[in-house]
Each structure stands twice: as C-alpha cells, then as structure tokens.
Design goal:
The protein is of the alpha/beta class. The chain has 13 helices and 10 strands. The chain has 2 domains: about 280 residues, TIM Barrel; about 55 residues, no CATH class.
Length: about 425
C-alpha cells in the first residue's frame, strides 16, 4: 500500500511539472499583449528620451454642412402692403451721410421727428455713410458710438409713429473697386441687421444708395444677391428695399435679379429729371450744371443763355436748344420725360411683382421757388397716380422742404408734398 501511494505522488508531481512547462510566459502587470486597435504600438523597452512620437490616427474631415436657410416667418409680410405702407416720406439728408455729422451743416435734432410727423409724413429715409465708421480690415467693426447715434434716430422716428428706412449711402470705395469691398460691405450689413433684427417691421433695410461707376448692373446684382442671403441668415422678417445700378434710376429695375425664394422686398428708384433744372447751380454736379434761370416747365418766356462752360458739353448744348424752343408737350423740361420714366418704372416693378417706392426726388434751392413748387407738385401727383409711395429729397438742407434757419416749413413746397397740410400761423 505504501509503495502504491508513493507511485501516485510521483505521477502527480510529473504531471504538474509537465503542465507548468507548457504555459506561455506571463506578461507584466497592466501591460497589454498588443496595442489597442485605435492606438499605435509603443515599445516600452526604450527610454523615454528616445521614444518615437505617437502618430495619431487620421480623423476624416466632416462632410460640409450647407448653410441653413431660415424658414419663412410665421406671419410673412405682404410686400405690396409693405411698399404702400411707406406712403409719403422725407429724407434726412446731409446729416449721417456726411463724412462726419455736422460737416455738411446738418445735425439732427429731436424736434425734427415731431415736426415731420405732425406735417403728415409717414416715413423717414435715413442716408448713412457707414463706411467711414467701420474698420477697414476684418472684422470691419462699426464704431459703437456711431451705432448709438443711429439707435437714437431709429428710436425717435418710431416714437413719433414714423416708418424708418436705414440705408448705406456714399460708400464711394465700392463704386471704384467692387470686388475689393464686397466682403466689408456684407460684413457691415451683417452687423446692422444683427443689431436691429428685433425692431418693429416698419423698419426697412436698403442695402445701397445709387450704385454706379465700376459697380455695374451685373456686378451689383451678384453683390446684392449675396448681401440679401447674408441678411436672411440673420433676419428673415424685415423688408429689404432693392434697386438697380445706373445711379438707382428706373433702367436698373428692368434687369433686377434677386435670390430665389426672396419674397419680402420693395423696389425703389430715384428721379431728378430734368437734371439741368433740378441741379442747376449745384457745384458738385459739374460744369454742365452751372447755368441758372432754368424754369419748370419749359419753354421759358425768354430763352436762357447757357453758361460758357456748359456750351462745351454737347448733350447740354442740345438740351438747352430744345428747352428754349420746343413746346410744352415735347419740351425736355415738360411732362413727357417724367411720365415716360415713371411708366417704364411701373412696368419693371409689375414684371417683378413688387411695390414701387420713389426714394428720392427734389429740386435744388438755386431754382426759383415757384418752379420748384410746380415741379414737386407734378412729380408727386404722377407718382401717386401710379400707386407709388415716395420720399422727398430732403428735409432741411439745399433741397429742403424745411427752413431750419427760420424755423419754418417752406409752405409752398410742403403743400406740394402734403396738400392737406394746414397753413402755418
């Protein structure tokens, strides 16, 4: 029995030694037998100083996500009603459009908003030279003090029950080099819209006044389209006032193009015909415009003698020849040119399904007052007969309907614009 027990013990010992020899070598505590599937292999036997840097697994670039398009507002605005809402307006010219407010002799006062509303106007158009109040390099930040001044204008307009149209005026650089200033132009508008997107819907945005120069119609349509898309990514509620190139005349409306799906807009154009009447004596207009004594309508009782410099300009020479001799019906300072231009503007607006706003018209103070009154009455009546809203250029400077020095309206001009106005005491 003892012998058999001894053999059994020796057998168990041999089996234990055999199994131990067949097992794999043990790994150190905490070490993995292979690197994780998402990590590179690391040789822990090398000292840290000579260990090669781990190379991260490349992460695929995400698929670009299209810029989201804002859904239409819950209660979208009727663009025809928005155009008609503008009614009868006046431009606050020569103030915030100057390089610096006051530089052109006009500083806005709180009482002006009350006067404008009490006279019967519905809208103020606010020309603003944003480009001189923004950084010239990215991010093109608009000066906060200037923004606060615009805030004040909007607040006073709204407080007096007026519609307010905010525009971009006198961005001269974009007329010279459109491509170089497109990014800045759009960035400024993004700031404007971000600031005022929560204002009531009787605040309107007008991207640019009178595009011209190297900013051709085709270039302007591309920039306008990009600007509208940028605005709509921030604000899909407020109405945008759009115009064509060629100084904002009716010609530009005939080839107006807007982004697909844009529905909330009003079409605008400006009319100063005949320019040799409305801009006579305006030094900034050039040599051809310095002949004074041009009355409206033509022909004059006594032929007007041209300024010697004006005679050298062929189209001016031809215009005065016709002005001095043609009858009222066909005179270049008669009704026909204005009616023809308005009819073309109406047709262009109808083709695009938009309301039409005559955003500027006016006659400079060098013209005689009776002619200014007659011309202003005729233009206003012709515009209203075609269903246009309008804004006279301008409140209280060289074209002004209000005499700031005397503290009184030019009563004849005011009645030409607002026939229902009561006489001043």
């Amino acid at each position: 029995m003892k012998k058999r027990a001894m053999f059994l013990c020796l057998g168990l010992l041999a089996l234990t030694l055999f199994l131990t020899a067949c097992r794999p070598a043990a790994t150190p505590d905490g070490a993995e037998t292979q690197p994780p599937a998402t990590s590179p292999a690391v040789d822990d036997t090398q000292p840290p100083a000579t260990r090669p840097a781990a190379t991260p697994t490349a992460i695929p670039s995400p698929t670009p996500t299209p810029q989201p398009t804002l859904a239409p507002p819950a209660a979208p605005l009727d663009r025809i009603a928005q155009g008609q809402r503008l009614g009868r307006g006046v431009n606050l010219g020569n103030a915030l459009e100057a390089p610096k407010e006051g530089e052109w002799g006009m500083v806005l006062q709180k009482e002006y908003f009350r006067l404008i509303a009490e006279a019967g106007f519905d809208t103020i158009r606010v020309p603003i030279r944003w480009s001189t109040h923004a950084l010239e390099t990215p991010p093109y930040t608009v000066d906060e003090d200037f923004f606060q001044r615009v805030d004040w204008v909007i607040e006073n307009g709204l407080a007096n029950g007026l519609n307010v149209v905010i525009n971009m005026h006198h961005y001269e650089e974009i007329f010279e080099a459109p491509s170089a200033h497109t990014e800045r132009f759009i960035a400024i508008w993004e700031q404007i819209v971000s600031r005022y997107k929560d204002k009531p819907d009787n605040v309107y945005f007008e991207p640019l006044n009178e595009p011209h120069g190297n900013l051709t119609q085709d270039k302007w349509m591309r920039i306008l389209g990009d600007t509208i898309l940028a605005i709509r990514r921030i604000d899909n509620r407020h109405t945008i006032v759009v115009t064509g190139a060629e100084w904002g005349g009716y010609h530009g409306l005939q080839s107006l193009r807007l982004p697909e799906g844009e529905e909330n807009y009003v079409c605008t154009f400006h009319s100063y015909e005949p320019m040799l009447f409305t801009h006579q004596g305006a030094t900034w207009a050039g040599a051809g415009y310095q002949t004074l004594g041009v009355t409206w309508p033509g022909p004059p009782a006594t032929p007007v003698v041209m300024d010697p410099e004006a005679e050298k300009v062929s189209w001016v020479f031809s215009w005065f020849r016709q002005y001095n001799t043609y009858p009222y019906e066909t005179n270049p300072a008669g009704p026909k040119p204005i009616r023809d231009a308005f009819d073309r503007a109406v047709r262009a607006a109808e083709q695009r399904g938009c309301a039409l706003w005559l955003g500027e018209f006016g006659a400079f103070e060098q013209a005689d007052m009776q002619s200014r009154i007659a011309w202003t009455t005729f233009v206003r009546e012709e515009a209203e007969a075609r269903g246009m809203s309008w804004a006279y250029w301008e409140f209280g400077s060289g074209f002004g309907v209000y005499d700031r020095a005397a503290g009184r309206w030019h009563e004849g001009l005011l009645k030409a614009l607002i026939p229902e106005v009561r006489s001043q005491g």
